[in-house]
Design brief:
Layout: H1 2-18, E1 41-49, H2 58-68, E2 70-79, H3 80-94, E3 99-107, H4 109-112, E4 114-115, E5 118-119, E6 121-128, E7 133-139, E8 149-157, E9 160-168, H5 175-189, E10 195-200, H6 211-216, E11 218-219, E12 243-248, E13 250-258, E14 267-275
Amino acid sequence: MPLLAGAAILALVCVALVGRSAPGDDLSGRSLPADAAGDVVPNRVMTWNLCNPCDTGAADRAAQIAAYAPQVVGLQEACVRDVEKIRDHLENLYGLVYHVAYGTVLRNWGRCGGMPWSPGGYGQAVLSAAPMTDLVEVEYPDGGSEDRGYMAVTTTVGGRTVRVFNTHLAERRQEAVRAEQAAVLAAEVARHDRAIVLGDFNAVPDAPELGRMWALAEDADPRCRPSSAGTCEPTTDWHSKFDYVFLRGITPLAHRVRSTPYSDHHLFHADLGPVRNPV
């Protein structure tokens, strides 16, 4: 009996050290759609809220990203360990090599696993096929019901150096908090003539709290403006536009929104065109 008890304890320790597995984390390849990009698309950017906690494996998420192969991907509700697995699957299964930067805003065992005394990092992440520099991580003074923030990096998109931001604003029904957060973000974006702002803003286009962002930039969906919110393509399962690719000093060429079974937010990617004159 002592021997059996010892074996059981050892098994539990192993599970704790390795972490929880999730469906889809095996290393078998996932079939991609016929029109999937064969290599990284140099002028393409994507934003995607991964949904957390959701019972989805990193391999499934990697397959979704590989289908469109953006130069830059901004992820929200991202656990550091999960993003590391996604990056590895993208390289090992699809030959897509990405650098990764993190904008961790909290450490949460319930969301990201790990040991209770050493929980996993949670927040934003940026994957870029080109190297990134000048990483900035900012936690908003008031996160609302959960810590929130933004991160920013300098990288190359479409052969041009650009400042890329990735953010996740406070949850729904916290308009005043989001307004303060958007003001903090907009003040930094305004310092750059050319910028891309990716993220889940948890607000529809005509929400007052997004006014500062609209004053600086346009969404990659050319039909989507505060005055024409009814024509904005929804980016969530509840048919709301919450996810944005804000462009400052850059012209959008095309965009696509794709629903996915692996998150309650859709994939939103945009192909970018020429640089405009300074805003």
